[in-house]
Each structure stands twice: as C-alpha cells, then as structure tokens.
C-alpha cells in the first residue's frame, strides 16, 4: 500500500506538479519543543526509474525497486519532455512542517495568510520542478481531549483536530486559548540521468 501511495504522489507531483490541499499529514502527531510550543515534520522521498517512453502519447512507464510499474501521461505542464530517457530516475521529495505556539487567553482575530512559490527547469535541461506553500495562521482552541490526546483548532477557513504526543504539555492548553503558527508544504521533483555504463 505504501508504494502505491508513493507512486500516486509522484504522479501528482510530476504530471502536473501539484501541492495537496488535504489535511496535513503532520496531524498524526505534534511534539512539544518547549513550553507552549509544538512542532511536527513529515518527510518522504520516492525514486522511480523510467522503464519505457511513448513520445507520441507523451506517456511514461515508471518502475520502483520492486519492479512494480505505473503508467502516466505527461501533460503540457511538463516542460522538456524530450529530454527524458529510458533508465533515468524520477526523484520526488515531499516535506510538511507545522510549528505553533499557544497564546493563553486568546483575544486576537482568527486569520490565515497564504503564500506560495514555484520553479521549473530551464529549456534544454532534464525536467524538474519545485512548489511550496506556506500558511501563517491564528486559530481558536475549540476543544482539548486529554483522553485521546487531541486538540481541535478553529481557524479562519477550517477546523482541524491535531494529535499531541506530550500529554503533560496538552494539559497546559485550554478551550478559549489561541494558537499562532505556520504550516509549510514543499514538493520537489527531478529527473536524474541514468548512469553511464562502463566497460571493464
């Protein structure tokens, strides 16, 4: 199942490049990094090999280390498609980070500020792309569940429930408090040339 998720992630990222809008995976668990300060990080990397190419249909068959294959079509968003060769590696890296600080008593307006950036390879180079988004926010603490070690936050746009790994730190958070934080997500994809074979 994990490899299928990795393959799907690579497909989403490369054809075309896209950043997930789903609830953060870091919701799986935040660790206390200081009094009233919490952080969570998720990092993933997948490497696939180009097994075959159909230039007429702009499709690729990618293969993982277990030999499992997936076919995908490169849309017009994928620049420099003609630079891809059989044997090249498609390397996708994905990172999520969430940092937040508890503000006792609250009182500030809930807010959300989004920013993003993108980049792609120059003409003639192997296809590569990078996308990142960052969300700065202030959210209200709606509920603290000590039994399940979760805190429910209501932001300016949506409400999320996060797992907190440190129960003692969780006890310091109360309904009516606020959290101020930054959520960041980045995806990078690169096609790496196949290693040249050497004659012994």
UniProtKB/TrEMBL annotation:
Alphabetic keyword roster: Signal
Signal sequence, start to end: 1-21
Name the UniProt record assigns to this protein: DUF5666 domain-containing protein
Organism: Candidatus Accumulibacter affinis
């Amino acid at each position: 199942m994990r490899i299928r998720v990795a393959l799907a992630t690579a497909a989403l990222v490369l054809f075309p490049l896209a950043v997930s809008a789903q609830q953060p995976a870091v919701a799986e668990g935040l660790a206390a990094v200081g009094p009233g300060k919490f952080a969570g990080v998720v990092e993933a990397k997948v490497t696939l090999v180009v097994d075959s190419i159909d230039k007429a249909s702009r499709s690729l068959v990618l293969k993982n280390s277990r030999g499992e294959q997936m076919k995908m079509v490169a849309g017009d968003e994928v620049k420099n498609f003609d630079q891809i060769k059989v044997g090249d590696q498609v390397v996708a890296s994905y990172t999520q980070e969430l940092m937040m600080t508890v503000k006792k008593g609250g009182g500030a307006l809930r807010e959300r500020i989004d920013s993003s950036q993108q980049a792609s390879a120059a003409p003639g180079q192997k296809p590569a792309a990078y996308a990142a988004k960052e969300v700065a926010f202030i959210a209200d603490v709606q509920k603290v569940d000590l039994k399940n070690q979760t805190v429910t936050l209501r932001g300016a746009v949506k409400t999320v429930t996060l797992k907190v790994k440190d129960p003692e730190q969780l006890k310091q958070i109360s309904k009516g408090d606020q959290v101020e934080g930054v959520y960041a997500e980045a995806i990078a994809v690169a096609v790496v040339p196949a290693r040249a074979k050497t004659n012994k």
